[in-house]
Design a protein that fits this description.
Radius of gyration: 27 Å
Number of strands: 7
CATH topology of the largest domain: Immunoglobulin-like
Strand order of the largest sheet: 1-2-7-6
Distance between the termini: 100 Å
Strand content: 35-45%
Oligomer: single chain
Largest sheet: 4 strands, antiparallel
């Protein structure tokens, strides 16, 4: 008798699909991030270095804006055709007025990976850092030109 009063759901709609749960989680993460909630995996909210890439005939030039960082706060690595910039940013704000002291400190990690069109020689990569701007120069590999070689033919 009571079975008729309870609506039945098909098995398919009883639980959301796994991808639906992740999209809902992402929605809430984005929502809470706007209120200053901590972001996952130690990432600093709102900080991902802006990187520009220019190319000329001889090289690629990557420029990254890293305001407030020093050379010890990040590292640049090259492996095959991937240039990786990773580091940690610390931010601290201290304010004192009317006998009250307010200190706000945030820190987090960042990582940017850029794939180049071809593998490069890691020894031909140069980096410089000045006034919060990192410049990485990656020399293009020389094209392998086929060498013309005449093969002597002998009588066997």
């Amino acid at each position: 008798m009571f079975d008729l009063m309870v609506p039945r759901r098909s098995r398919r709609s009883a639980l959301p699909a796994h991808r639906d749960v992740r999209s809902i989680d992402a929605l809430f993460d984005d929502l809470w991030r706007g209120f200053g909630a901590a972001t996952p995996r130690g990432a600093l909210p709102g900080f991902s270095p802006h990187i520009d890439v220019r190319e000329n005939d001889e090289e690629y030039v990557l420029t990254a804006e890293l305001p407030g960082l020093e050379e010890k706060d990040f590292e640049v690595t090259v492996e095959d055709d991937i240039v990786t910039l990773k580091g940690e940013k610390h931010s601290s704000h201290e304010e004192e007025k009317e006998g009250l002291r307010h200190v706000e400190t945030r820190s987090g990690c960042f990582e940017r990976r850029l794939r180049l069109p071809a593998p490069v020689d890691a020894d031909a990569v140069k980096a410089s850092f000045k006034s919060g701007v990192l410049s990485v120069t990656v020399r293009k590999p020389e094209e392998v030109k086929p060498k013309l070689r005449t093969i002597p033919v002998t009588n066997a």
